Amino acid sequence: MDVVKEIIQNSAIGPLSNGYKGLVLSLFASIVGILFTMLIVLIKYGPETTIQFGY
Fold it and tell me: Please, which of 2, 20, 46, 47 could form a disulfide with 16 given CB 3.0 to 4.6 Å?
């Protein structure tokens, strides 16, 4: 936990208030969660998906 605190203090959001830090961290966590969910869906349903390339 000390490493995470130090990274946050030395980053661009270090001087911001705790509310903004929480907002930025929750936005980052939600993006990572969405990407992880997309990866799981792609792994699960990828072979059944038909992809057509066309113009």
Answer: 20
